[in-house]
Amino acid sequence: MSWRTGLGVVLLVAAIVSGWSAWHMRERSEPAADTGQRSDYVLRDFELVMLGKDGVESVRLRAPELQRSREDESLAIVQPLFLMPGEDGGWQLASDRGWVDAEGSVAKLDGNVKGDSAPGNPTPTTFRTDRLELLPDQHLARTDDRVTLTQPGIMQTGVGFQANLQTRQYQFLSQVKTRYEPSPRR
């Protein structure tokens, strides 16, 4: 066998292998297009101050991550901490996840929602629930879920809750139970 015949056999085998490879690659489907919602922007480790219509601070927001939706301009927030000003220092509201509409008029907190009166408040108050809707312009927090409210000497639970965070007025809507825990005498 001459060197030309050997070269021809090698080239023939290479052509068959490359043809088989091209045919095999042609049968693979193209990767699926990303249909997930994309963000306009992402903020990480930030603090955001929102002003009311009168120009006064209505809420301050701190979180490790925020994503703004391109479609509806809403905000998806990871572990938000909302600081609401009010009488006697205001409130701290935290949760696992948060969502704010495009106008900033409604915030929804979801997962392990914790509401705590600001440190130094003369009547320390906390409430716990799974979901909470926050209306910053009205200083209103509300939910249809079970809530536990704790103040010195008293613990209340109920289903459905509404609180004016500025005036500190609370209202349970149903299934209310109250337990008094007197403070020890000194």
UniProtKB/TrEMBL annotation:
Keywords: Cell inner membrane, Cell membrane, Membrane, Transmembrane, Transmembrane helix. It is a single-pass membrane protein. InterPro entries: LipoPS_assembly_LptC-rel, LPS_export_LptC, LptC. Signal peptide: none annotated. It is found in: Cell inner membrane. It comes from the Bacteria. Involved in the assembly of lipopolysaccharide (LPS). Required for the translocation of LPS from the inner membrane to the outer membrane. Facilitates the transfer of LPS from the inner membrane to the periplasmic protein LptA. Could be a docking site for LptA. Belongs to the LptC family. Component of the lipopolysaccharide transport and assembly complex. Interacts with LptA and the LptBFG transporter complex. NCBIfam families: LptC_YrbK. This is Lipopolysaccharide export system protein LptC. The lineage of its organism: Bacteria, Pseudomonadati, Pseudomonadota, Gammaproteobacteria, Lysobacterales. The gene is lptC.
